[in-house]
């Protein structure tokens, strides 16, 4: 069966987010004065062909830890 | 021949003119009614109607972009016959080949990616880089440098003044630079030089020109033609998809305000990580002598590449289209045939070598498949699941129409003298010009590019003390290991001048190219041109084109180098108007010992400063006039013989280290050239000008063929003697030292500015606008 | 004991799609007399023939997930045990720029966790953009390291930087930085012309805490740095040929050790 | 009042996605054979200081179109 799983990767609290800061600045240069802060996350939408629901969590967590996130700076969230 | 098999349809052209126009519109081929009639005649002789894939192929091949139907006449008449002894094979291939040394040649290519970049700056510019790399790789050459002349409307353009469908220049500028950065850096080819120019005429049609230089052993040169009958066509690289369909026909018409939605399929993103191993694999297979021919898939896709490779060798082709590997399902045969998906190369391979070739591509994880075979007769036959769906004589497809379109000079009223009062404070004007975006530091752009990857860039675009560098006139790369010989690279054109006077503006672009090369100590060796103009069906635009081409030829003829490759991009028109005529020139020079490259920054206090050349009253379209809002005046003229003599004399003086710092005088005149020489080492100069011109003219005139040189006092005689012998005018104008730039004219002090004030004015503008 | 001759030293420069500084790395090894090999990871079956492994710079696999992450995970899935073994035997493993990022993602640098545990990250530059500029590097006091043994402490080099992700973040924060300094694992710091080790941007091009530009493991045989010594190989600067000295150190170390 | 708005940006169908393709390839080389496809989106979490809810949609849409996305190749989704 096909399943779509979403892994969202963000920076841990306390880790600075240069891209977010850059976007914040660019938006304020454009005149959007209401913007206080921007943070940027990445979202991987993974289409899986699996036999059971149980497999999903386990294997997606493994992908995330092996490749998609670096534990020193990232937190992640898996949803489907 | 197939009759009707669902995936392929036949179109009858025996219909009224209105119907023909409708067919052109509906198929998106961009063919004119007259062109369709010519096609009708051809198929009448064949005794059948064309199929959709045949018509689509003709639409691609006969587009302005592919067959140069409006420009060919002028190019042939004025440029193509120029020749130089160092040229090996020029104009005919995707890149020009010029001798580098006994064993090596270098390949040069320059192209535009304007339309796609206007719609999708990031992807458009990135795929521009991808395309120009392919042009060089398909000569068997290893790319060694990229160049990116890019043109936008002023960054201060008001959001409320943007026409419908037009994106803000900041968005386009930042997208274009990111696209070039992300593609160029990822494939690991240094982007070493370029231009960043602003003019209101680029609103709605930015220009993105990209150039590439490669190096190849003469023994490894390969051409875009098959070897012989029975050779296999092997298609390598990324899958073929619906992206990029009708890219060339899109590039051959004006942009409309709904182009962004209607032309989506022409837009692509590009995959540098497919390109990088593809380059390695192609070059490896070529170096092992496993290929008989190599060509990239660019405009027109498979349709163009198969026909051209076969025709160049006097053969034909049989293609099984269903063998092409696809990115997406459900594609129609004609879509596969004309798709311009990126990152693909076509090779011709003898049957004996096939396995070895496929093994190389397998190692690099790059897909490669056999899709057809070379046949004796000069026709292309395309089959789809066993049935023939395309059968045309190659020469009919590739010859294409040629037009000599009407030209007409525009009516102008600005030829008179400019009238305004000379400002009392010229120092303020200097600062204004120095901090205008056209002249200010481009390091916001340059530093986003890896300009030193491959470790051959011996002199980049930024030179001087770390983190307070100034601009170099040309970058130098040393492409052959163990050899000190370098290639100097620059690109130039001042669209303000060309817009005001296409002939002298274009001539000035060549002059500037040559003098930028000479300024670093390089002898001009070859040019490439990218001719960006408006709609050729408008007589005024065609006139601009024709005058500019003549201006280019006028100077190039005399300097010992010719146009070895190039590209014409017409229809750069949006509802807001046409782009200014922009003949971008890329110049390549040879520098015998790259370690002797000259830079503009002052070297030591107490040295003598000279001006080579003469300042004349030539302020038409100058940076000074633009800042003063003044119209009129004369655009700088060129004396090509003087240019040739003066640059040769200067290069010799740099080679024997008589000249220790050198900068050419261009936009902003002497005042700006001197300011730029004060940066990079933060040493000042004291200048006294004594010419008979007005003080503002003396400071800001943009007369061609001028340089400022720093010479040690002990070498003054040698310097003066050498120039006098070459009959080149020069003037002693002052000396280096202190940390201020002071300039006086006939005893009256006009400028006294600290080097830090100059640095500040020059360095910050782009950072402050772009963040 | 007889020293190994330089030409008998075989250095393996590992490449995949998108590594693109391998030609200059190859040249650097060749120019100090060693025998380099450019090997695609797909063809690298064993490390046995080599005395040194180098991961070059570039954009391996496009750096799409995170700089170096895909390359690292591919090494992990194929050769990891053998690589750990190689390191245990004292053979040098180095990474420049993207290669440094790969070694960090492999957990080999700073190498203070369980084998293979990732304890650092080379995070996005503070400027949020790719930075190509010349860096001044100060050789800081450190353990004997294979890559710097011939370069006296306190020397300053001019080396090109070119990266978008070069800010070294360590798990464990302040204490971790203190630990690697104390253990002599910091090789280079970004400085200005006054040799200040806290010099701000643009001297420190990425915002790396304490201006750290390059580190090694505690044993000194695994090392990585963001700037490119292989590009400063025959560009003469204030200390002669900065890059050459590093590669000469490496060859000398191998020659003397094995 | 402070509001957190999320803008998710992805590539339209038919636009080639080198990032997604390379991640798919990497996962399959790592042995995750169940992965059929990966697409990558970016998520901007924007903190706004606004007076009324009505303002949000309008101004975030404008920010997105002016800076964050290009409607030619991107689709986007605004949520709060
Ligand atoms: N888009 C760009 N990419 C790379 N280099 C650039 C770019 N724009 C400008 N440069 C570099 O900045 C320097 C100054 O550019 P420019 O003012 O056009 O020079 P010049 O007046 O000498 O022709 C040149 O060395 C040029 O190569
Ligand atoms: Mg490579």
Break the fold down into its secondary structure elements and pairings.
The complex is a heterotetramer, with 2 copies of chain A (80 residues), 1 copy of chain B (771 residues) and 1 copy of chain C (258 residues).
Chain A: E1 2-11, H1 18-29, E2 35-49, H2 53-68, E3 74-79
Antiparallel strand pairs in A: 1-2, 1-3
Chain B: H1 17-27, H2 33-46, H3 52-61, H4 64-67, H5 72-79, E1 87-89, E2 96-99, E3 104-112, H6 114-119, H7 121-137, E4 142-152, H8 169-187, E5 191-198, E6 207-217, E7 232-237, H9 247-250, H10 259-262, H11 272-287, E8 293-296, H12 301-312, E9 316-320, H13 333-338, E10 344-349, H14 354-363, E11 368-375, E12 379-384, E13 387-393, H15 394-399, H16 426-434, H17 443-446, E14 457-459, E15 462-463, E16 470-471, E17 475-477, E18 486-492, H18 495-500, H19 502-520, E19 523-532, H20 539-556, E20 563-569, E21 573-574, E22 577-578, E23 582-591, E24 608-612, H21 623-628, H22 640-655, E25 659-664, H23 669-678, E26 685-689, H24 695-700, E27 707-711, H25 716-725, E28 730-736, E29 740-745, E30 748-754, H26 755-763, H27 765-770
Parallel strand pairs in B: 4-5, 9-12, 19-20, 26-29
Antiparallel strand pairs in B: 1-2, 2-3, 3-6, 4-6, 7-10, 7-11, 8-10, 9-11, 12-13, 14-17, 15-16, 17-18, 18-23, 19-23, 21-22, 24-27, 24-28, 25-27, 26-28, 29-30
Helix pairs in contact in B: 5-20, 7-8, 8-11, 11-14, 19-20, 19-22
Chain C: E1 10-15, H1 22-31, E2 35-40, E3 52-55, H2 69-88, E4 93-96, H3 98-105, E5 120-124, E6 131-139, E7 156-163, E8 165-170, H4 173-182, E9 186-191, E10 212-216, E11 222-225, H5 242-257
Parallel strand pairs in C: 1-2, 1-3, 3-4, 4-11
Antiparallel strand pairs in C: 5-8, 6-7, 6-9, 9-10, 10-11
The complex binds adenosine-5'-diphosphate and magnesium ion (MG).
